[in-house]
Amino acid sequence: MSKHGRNAILAAAPVVAFPSFLGLALCAAVMFTLYSVVPRLDAADKIKRKSVSALDLVVVLESLVLGLSAGLSIPASLKLASASRHTIAHRQLSGVVQLYEMGQDLPTALIELTTIDAQWTLICGILAAAHLSGAPVVEALDAMLEHLREEAQSEVTTRIRSLAVKSVLPLGLCFLPAFFLLTVVPLVASFLTQVHW
User: Fold this and answer.
1) What CATH number has the domain bearing residue 144?
2) Would you call 22 helix, strand, or coil by DSSP?
3) Residue 151 CB burial class (10 angstroms; 0-12, 13-18, ≥19)
4) Tens digit of pLDDT for each residue in 136-162?
5) How does pLDDT run across 158-187, given as a tens digit for each residue?
6) Which phi and psi angles does 85 have, rounded to 5°?
7) Using CA atoms, how far apart are residues 137 and 32, in angstroms rounded to an integer?
8) Of 4, 63, 78, 144, which has the fewest beta carbons less than 10 angstroms from its beta carbon?
9) 72: closest CA among 12, 131, 133?
10) Pair 150, 68 in one domain
């Protein structure tokens, strides 16, 4: 079944269940949700999946610093780091390694990585400068790693704080009807039975 067929069935269900104005209103709400809200959420999710998170960069940098601290060259450390996991950041880094192995110089391959995702700009700048000058790079990457760890912790804290706000609506939708049925309706019913018309 295609997506449009499924959406048509879901949109028609309220009209079948409630053959009145209420069914038409629910049908309009379902259609608006399926054809307007859901595609926007899907597009935002795709963008989110393509971008590298700070936590992914932390994992890549830890592998890179480990290789460099062990005495490997920058290209060998990049190859080690790109092969260590299969996250978005590792896949992007493996593209740089493949470009380098096909004969492109490392700074140009790193610039290609910054055009894919801007999160890599500072890291690639440090690596390219160290590759060209032969300067030690471990200290600079350690400082970058500490910064990225703090950023990753900040991302986690932000997600936790937003969870409280996002959970209010479902809790309210579940709690309020039960509250009205268990407290307000019996009070109104008892009041109506006591009133003499």
Assistant:
1) 1.20.81
2) helix
3) middle
4) 899 999 998 999 899 889 988 988 888
5) 888 888 887 887 777 778 888 888 888 888
6) -145, -175
7) 53
8) 4
9) 131
10) yes
* Dist. CA 75–CA 103, nearest whole Å: 12
* Enclosing domain of residue 132: 54-159
Domain boundary among 126, 142, 159: 159
The DSSP code sequence of 87-146 is SHHHHHHHHHHHHHHTT--HHHHHHHHHHH-GGGHHHHHHHHHHHHH----HHHHHHHHH
At 9-66, the pLDDT tens digits run 877 887 787 788 877 888 888 888 888 877 887 777 666 666 777 788 888 999 999 9
Q: Please indicate, yes or no, whether residues 44 and 123 belong to a single structural domain of this protein.
A: no
Query: What is the spatial distance between Cα 76 and Cα 24, in angstroms, rounded to a whole number?
Result: 64
Only one residue has tokens 């048509």, namely 8
Q: Are 45 and 53 in contact (CB under 8 A)?
A: no
pLDDT at 48: 60
Q: Compute the distance between CA of residue 152 and CA of residue 158 in angstroms, rounded to an integer.
A: 10
Is residue 76 included in any domain, yes or no? yes
Model pTM score: 0.59
